[in-house]
Amino acid sequence: MAGLMHMVHLWETWSTLTAAVRQGRSVVERPQNMNERAEDWLRAFIAAMHWRARQHASSVVALLDLSNVSRVLDVGGGSGAYAMAFVKAKPGLSAVAFDLPSVIPLTEEYIRRERLSDRVTTLRGDYERDVFGNGFDLVFLSAIIHSNSSSQNRALMLKGAEALAPHGQLVVQDFIVNEDRTGPPFAVLFALNMLVGTEAGDTYTESEVRLWMEGAGLRSVERTDTPFGTSLIVGRRVVES
Fold this sequence. Notes:
By secondary structure, the chain is of the alpha/beta class.
């Protein structure tokens, strides 16, 4: 039912496609800031994202190197599905789910349901305005960059890098388009979803993500494609000796 309600809300944006293409931006008259969205929209959105994330989270986390990871920050953590997958993947690992004040009560509901409140905590804030803290071994940005403009993502990478412990890793998971922006088909289609539904969102190329990471001082940037149509791009914080 959550997925059905999310599709209903997607129709509200996709029905404006013609006007959005003509104007080059979203024409939907509603709060762009998710923290200002109505509770029925927000609850349906988070539930739909939770359903999708639960299908993939454990497999995605298994693709990452957790050998030196004990603290994870999940930025825009939503339902906490990935934060919970991280703590399930490694004994002794703890995670923080960071999200908007309107989202966190829902996050905490999901975490309590899984009886993981002792290992997954929450932090309320806006990733454009608030600091993340520091000393995290891994900062995770899943399905975040496509909601933002290029300049917003550049700033977000810098903030994420500053939250890392020495040699920590920043991980982006998203739909990545090829360099001429003609594929893969779903990633290109998703760019339209961002056009009709967000103020400045888009899908981005690997070279764009690399540029943002390197601008934030991250090195050894590597890409791994998942079986689910997304890619993981990982950069590491290098500490000069």
